[in-house]
């Protein structure tokens, strides 16, 4: 009995020191308690918590695992899962899902963390199952519903994603994040009437507007944002707001806008300027360098990705100009033909990587292209630029054009000499599609909203064909499908 009192006294001393932030002294007290009672699970857990505070995550895991061996308490598992997350050991959480289900089937926190871990290791179907279990216990969890909506989108269960986001909207009516992701879910099901309105909550729109307001504070104000009203006798200033691919894709609406206004001024990204100078699309003035506010004049302004909403496009009208709204510079195209493409082979352009800062899932290891290059009478050309271009050296016999391309005018001229483009989901798809060049795009398992749920067709470009991973990370199946098309 005296030993038990001494153990409790030492635990209390350790806990008091622990709360006071005197971690070394607290650890000594806990260790002393263990010398008297080596089976005390609580002390093992407290040592684990202490080690987490010291950022010694591996030691923390060892102590907490010992605590669970002695006595499997729910809050021990919660601490352990926290440590696993800190260490990035999501697979360790997944390994414990059966024991947690057996011991604590009604513990929301543990089920939520198991769902989160399954998401991290790409077990999306298992993650959905555990979020479902967690929500039966706590149906008011915004985080669970929000995470579940994303998983439904990954699995192309878009109607379920919409339903989950609607629950999120009820829980947090003013959350614009929900509005944005709901817009993507609607647009993925081709419900653009609802989707485009909510798409106005996107962050890149706000960033673009704020940037123009800073550049032209007296003219690009919030008050003179175009809201879709009659501008027949007015000048409108339109500007890019996202990536190259988005700019190319949404440029299909510029001719429609040009018919609605007196004058159209457009600001694209600099590498796109030569493309628009060769294809004005009804643009009256293309901005290729900074223009001081005193030298520019417009009545209203709008970010590019808002155009289909502001133009009031409904139904299939959203897919205006599915091909051929960009053409190459003929003289430049002929120069590229003489230099690179003067042969009788099937000429195939490829690209395998986009901006990895935003998305790693769309990066394709170049080794997968090798079987395609063995197809008879084919010549392959690398259109990979900048990051990832060094991988072209691993493809024997390829012609590396990408290293010489500095803008999209040059890229368009080179592309026009191809019979086929095969690439990842990147700006090259949009340029090929906008030029009417046959393009096979290789999509990851988690498909971007613009490709919709019916992957047998591409609504945006008549010349683009879609190939999706059969399972997460499985590029081989995509290339197997492409190879069947080629031979």
Backbone shape:
elongated
Task: Give the structural class.
Answer: alpha/beta
Largest sheet: 6 strands, parallel
**Low-pLDDT ranges:** none
User: Beta fraction of the residues?
Assistant: 5-15%
- The CATH class of one domain turns out to be Alpha Beta
Instruction: Provide the residue-averaged pLDDT.
Output: 94
N- to C-terminal separation?
Answer: 83 Å
Count of DSSP helices? 23
Radius of gyration: 29 Å
Tally of strands: 10
Q: Which CATH architecture of one domain is right?
A: 3-Layer(aba) Sandwich
The strand line-up of the biggest sheet is: 7-6-5-8-9-10
What would your notes on this structure say?
Helix content is 49%, strand content 10%. The protein has 487 residues and is α/β, with parallel strands linked by helices. Among the domains are: 140-201, Tetratricopeptide repeat domain (Serine Threonine Protein Phosphatase 5, Tetratricopeptide repeat), CATH 1.25.40; 207-319; 330-486, Glycogen Phosphorylase B (Rossmann fold, 3-Layer(aba) Sandwich), CATH 3.40.50.2000. It is elongated.
Keyphrases for this structure?
single chain; 487 residues; Serine Threonine Protein Phosphatase 5, Tetratricopeptide repeat; Rossmann fold; 4-stranded parallel β-sheet; 10 strands
